[in-house]
Amino acid sequence: MLQRTFACAVILVCVLLPGCERPAEYDLILRGGILYDGSGSTPIVGDVAIQGDVVAALGDLGNASGRRELDVSGLAVAPGFINMLSWATETLLIDGKSQSDIRQGVTLEVFGEGVSMGPLNEAMRIEAMRDLESLFTSRQEMVERFELEVDSSGQPVLPWTTLGEYLDFLVARGIAPNVASFVGATTVRVHEVGYENRAPTTEEMERMLALVDEAMQEGALGVGSSLIYAPAFFATTYELTELAKVAAKRGGMYISHLRSEGNRLVESVDELLAIARDAGIRAEIYHLKAAGQANWTKIEDVIARIEAARAQGMAITADMYTYTAGATGLDAGMPPWVQEGGFEAWRTRLQDPVMRARVAEEMRTPTDAWENLMLAAGPEGTLLVGFRNEKLRFMTGMTLAQIAQERGVSPEEAAIDLVIEDSSRVGTVYFLMSEENVRRQLALPWVAFDSDAGSMAPEGVFLDSNPHPRAYGNFARLLGKYVRDEKVLTLPEAIRRLTSFPAENLRIERRGRIAPGYFADIAVFDPVTIQDHATFEQPHQFATGMQHVFVNGVQVLSYGGHTGLLPGRVLRGPGYQP
Questions:
Q1: How far is CA 491 from the centre of its chain?
Q2: Residues 6 or more apart in contact with residue 190 via CB below 8 angstroms
């Protein structure tokens, strides 16, 4: 009896006295890592405790215990990276593991460069279904994979109409990273105006504004535009400003692939600044660059204009990828007028001898009226990487100059023929930028990072084309080549601009930092060995050096290997109305 009384007294004292507290227990503790909290401050050596889906504590947690503990001594422990421009909209439908990005530490994919996966009208749903079907060997495979409903005529039905429904569908299927999206200015224009070169009517404009507002309430981050492409090219500054005003009222931002990144780069930056000013909205430039050697010197003027606007209190930012080549399609080398009406109208015009001759002549003629990436890069700097037609895939990795020479035609004629034969815009890499400008932009404190690519793996349908190597290496290249090897920027600053900086710009709460109460999106890597390996010749190569990645507290990468777990969620913007 006396022993029992004594034991109870000891327990009571231990409960009441701080020095006798029971050690904390967490789901997971990362032990002894070099902690980069995302703020850009000097890292510390310490521990990170995760409870459920959030960071519970950090620092010296020697007295605490974890149901699971991981020794990360000597490794950098950072918030998960944010990919400000991702084209994983379709690749995640094929493979939710998102391996090429997860293996670089990316835990959030941001969509919406001009086009978004909703809102869709019925014609757009049919078109989207055709695009989706092209990713599979047969319609039946697609139907079974997505468990699609089939209508009375036997046609599969796309399982979403709005942007929010698409994002929910993606997560319901299972994905490793988190996802978020802007609503595409092009998408809402096509929804109401179609592919025509005209201004929307008053009624159409009202409906476009309503579509943006609905998307913002579904969680869109703002409005995204891509103004070198038809039909986006047909939108006026006024139209874009009105859409941006709706996003601004819901706390969103405007983000844009500028109307020109080459001959009219400076004027296009001025347009973005005018939209931001008139709409009262935060604005960001997609993949900042000066394209074409004749335009490389313009970058300093661009930087000066942005920094002057920032000094005046405007929230203007940019993002970029870490290569001197961009990637899009052969449409970026043909005049917008020939593309009016959509792809089939474009392809039909190219088969008309008179129009074909006019297009070829305009393709080889310098102009400020539209953006001609093919002319800026030259036939030798135009690399063909993605064909839909299996019979043409032997040309993957060849330049337009090589194809033209083999066929005995001009580069312009070759490009026209390829669009017709492939029934697609043909995936194309354009070598456009200077290495000096890349380094100059990397040093700017208001620049975040993007891959401008899908997230994939060296297997299956992904091997049918050669992506730009940025799909596999953009973020590892930043940390290896430009931070560690060339010291263009420090590691704490690089991590800030991969994490807290974009999270704050997007107004996404409790992301982008390692701090108590923040969601446990965490990247653990070796700063000494992190490295990209993808090249233009052999792009399907994973980066190395990333050891562990956690998304919402769940480990998706373990010792460099994917765990197969799919804990990704939809992250929604400040206008979200549940």
A1: 22
A2: 124, 231
Strands 316-320 and 282-285: parallel
Structural contact between residues 224 and 255, judged by C-beta atoms closer than 8 angstroms: yes
* 3-class DSSP state of 519: strand
Judge residue 335's burial from the number of C-beta atoms within 10 Å of its C-beta, 0-12 exposed, 13-18 middle, 19 or more buried.
buried
Greatest Cα pair distance, the chain, in angstroms, is 107
CA-CA distance, 18 to 410, in Å (whole number)? 82
Kindly state the DSSP code that residue 447 receives in the 8-state scheme: E
* pLDDT tens-digit readout, 266-304: 999 999 999 999 999 999 999 999 999 999 999 999 999
422 in Cβ contact with 281 (< 8 Å): no
- Judged on CB neighbours under 10 Å (0-12, 13-18, 19+), 39 is middle
> Three-state DSSP class for 367?
coil
Full DSSP string of 40-52: SSPPEEEEEEEET
Instruction: Tell me the pLDDT band of 10, cut-offs 50, 70 and 90.
Output: very low
pLDDT digits (tens, 9 = 90+) for 15-31: 444 444 667 899 999 99
* Alpha-carbon span 456 to 104, nearest angstrom: 12
Q: Which two tokens stand for residue 297?
A: 């010197």
Q: State residue 21's pLDDT score.
A: 62
- Per-residue pLDDT of 136-154, as tens digits, reads 888 888 888 888 888 888 8
pLDDT single digits (tens) 388-447: 999 999 999 999 999 999 999 999 999 999 999 999 999 999 999 999 999 999 999 999
CA-based torsion, 275, 83, 115, 386: positive or negative: positive
Size (the chain), residues = 578
Label each residue of 217-267 as H, E or C. Answer: HHCCCEEEEECCCCCHHHCCHHHHHHHHHHHHHCCCEEEEECCCCCCCHHH
What band does 51 get if pLDDT is binned at 50, 70 and 90? very high
With CA atoms as reference, report the closest residue to 262 among 212, 326, 357. 326
**Residue 24: what residue type?**
A
Residue 532, classed as helix, strand or coil, is coil
Token pair listed for 499? 């994490």
Predicted pLDDT of residue 133: 87
The answer to whether the predicted template modeling score (pTM) of the entire model surpasses 0.70 is yes
Residue 117's φ and ψ, nearest 5 degrees, are -80, 10
Tell me the DSSP string of 95-145: -TT-HHHHTTTEEEEEE-SS--S----HHHHHHHHHHHHTTSS-HHHHHHH
- Cα 286 to Cα 209, 225, 341, distances in angstroms: 22, 9, 26
**With the CA atoms of 340, 343, 346 and 350 taken in that order, what torsion angle do they form, in degrees rounded to the nearest 10?**
170
SS3 state at 164: helix
Could you give the CA distance from residue 198 to residue 287 in angstroms, rounded to a whole number?
28
Structure tokens at 558: 């373990």
Contacts of 458 (CB under 8 A, 6+ apart): 540, 541, 542
- In what helix (H) or strand (E) does residue 374 lie, and over which residues does it extend? helix 373-377
- Closest residue by Cα to residue 372 from 432, 421, 450, 322: 432
